[in-house]
Design goal:
Elements: H1 7-25, E1 27-29, H2 30-37, H3 41-54, E2 57-63, E3 71-76, E4 82-88, E5 92-99, E6 104-111, H4 119-137, E7 144-151, E8 154-158, E9 160-165, E10 170-173, H5 175-180, E11 187-191, H6 192-202, E12 212-217, E13 221-227, E14 230-231, H7 263-266, H8 268-278, H9 290-302, H10 306-330, E15 334-338, H11 340-360, H12 363-368, E16 370-373, H13 380-395
Parallel strand pairs: 4-7, 7-11, 12-15, 15-16
Antiparallel strand pairs: 1-3, 2-3, 4-5, 5-6, 8-9, 9-10, 12-13, 13-14
Helix pairs in contact: 1-2, 1-3, 2-3, 6-13, 8-9, 8-10, 9-10, 9-11, 10-11
Length: about 400
């Protein structure tokens, strides 16, 4: 917003504030909107009347009252428009369809092998997924407000949006431009950990002004940092490559081409490598699927297998030291562990992980940090990717035709 905001700027800001309140609360009265947003009742009434006239907001009933005039309950109109959110992960692609309230309508998932991680195949899966979801839901493309994608690697915002994913050999790839040739709605792209952080921030009312670190642990390892309610991106949007902080000088080879990165010790390929170093003939190495291998490894460790327990103990040790480094650097109020592997490791050994974090972190940042597992599950990247579109829509509320394709 400009330093000297115009009436139009203030109007847009007020609309955005009110819509965000309604997204978080679901159903709400005009008085509640005023109290939670800090806007006057007159301003709220004027904005709500505009949104009702445009069909973005609906009156859905009345609030029980002990006396006096009944309060009208308001809600976002779920059928006004729809958001698409997707995750291009290293083992699967997920495409999800949401209504205006971020209620998931349908989802589709495609397993992804290493030989399929080329741009043409990725685009084919995305287009097929979108087409299938819209056909099954009987929703036309002109009702789609936009699509967000959470991607591996770094989504660079230097001129054109391009994706650099060294582990995939993408150096760099204009995925957004390539995909735009196949769809008629706005597209938004960002790193998957950043979209996860957006999801956690927007769907937890208390996180809007916090410093928060969202950790994504899977095949790759990265972080999304929220600083005082906003994503911390850095100069070119590469901030958050926590998985490539160095844990051991000249240590294990990492997929990025360097040595000693955290990802080389706590990412799925690194854990499997460690298992093979301890027992090159271990039966789990024959599974051939890293997700299946890691789930089986955790399962037999729960049953007391000593080798599996050692592998996971070593992994938790490095992960705890990595989280401690992050605490010391950013001093976040909340640290949320997610990603398919992060959730599994956390469920397996969260108490041990917390002990190791405490051992390596400075006392003050550790004591103020709330460390937990993500409650959004495997949909967190797609939800956060949809939030890229939600943010843009709220910034430009008042018509689908005016939805911008600029990044948030």
């Amino acid at each position: 917003m400009a330093l000297n905001p115009t009436t139009r700027d203030l109007r847009r800001a007020n609309r955005r504030t009110i819509l965000k309140s309604m997204l978080i609360d679901g159903t709400i009265s005009r008085l509640d909107v005023s109290q939670r947003s800090g806007l006057s009742t007159g301003t709220v009434t004027n904005v709500i009347n505009e949104l009702l006239a445009e069909g973005i907001v609906l009156e859905s009933g009345y609030e029980a009252s002990e006396g006096g005039r009944r309060r009208t309950i308001l809600t976002l109109n779920p059928e006004y428009g729809y958001f698409l959110g997707g995750e291009v992960g290293e083992t699967a692609i997920a495409i999800e369809l949401f209504d205006l309230t971020l209620h998931q309508i349908r989802a589709i998932r495609y397993p992804l092998s290493q030989k399929e991680n080329n741009p043409a195949q990725i685009i084919q899966y995305i287009v097929e997924g979108v087409t299938s979801l819209l056909q099954e839901s009987q929703i036309s493309q002109d009702k789609i407000l936009g699509m967000g994608l959470g991607l591996p690697g770094i989504v660079e915002y230097t001129g054109d949006e391009v994706v650099s994913a060294p582990a995939w050999g993408w150096e760099p790839v204009p995925l957004k431009a390539l995909l735009s040739a196949h769809v008629a709605f706005p597209l938004h792209t960002d790193n998957g950990a950043k979209t996860m952080a957006l999801a956690e921030m927007h769907l937890n009312a208390g996180s809007s002004t916090e410093t928060l670190a969202m950790l994504q642990v899977g095949t790759g390892v990265s972080a999304g940092i929220i600083y005082e309610g906003k994503l911390y991106r850095g100069a070119t949007n590469s901030a958050g490559e926590w998985g490539h902080t160095i844990m051991e000088l000249d240590g294990q080879h990492c997929r990025c081409g360097r040595r000693g990165c955290l990802e080389a010790y706590v990412g799925a390929p690194g854990i499997i490598r460690h298992l093979s170093e301890l027992n090159a003939n271990h039966p789990l190495l024959q599974i051939g699927d890293e997700v299946g291998t890691l789930l089986a490894l955790i399962r037999i460790a729960r049953n007391g297998d000593p080798l599996a327990t050692q592998v996971l103990h070593d992994t938790i040790h490095y992960l705890g030291a990595g989280v401690a480094n992050l605490l010391n650097l950013f001093n976040p109020r909340r640290v949320i562990i997610g990603g398919w592997l992060g959730l599994q490791l956390g469920e397996f050994a969260l108490p041990e992980l917390l002990q190791i974090i405490e051992r390596y972190a400075l006392k003050q940042p550790y004591e103020v940090a709330e460390i937990s597992l993500s409650h959004l599950g495997r949909d967190s990247v797609s939800i956060g990717a949809a939030m890229l579109v939600v943010e843009d829509f709220f910034e430009n509320v008042g018509g689908r035709k005016n939805v911008s394709t600029s990044r948030t």
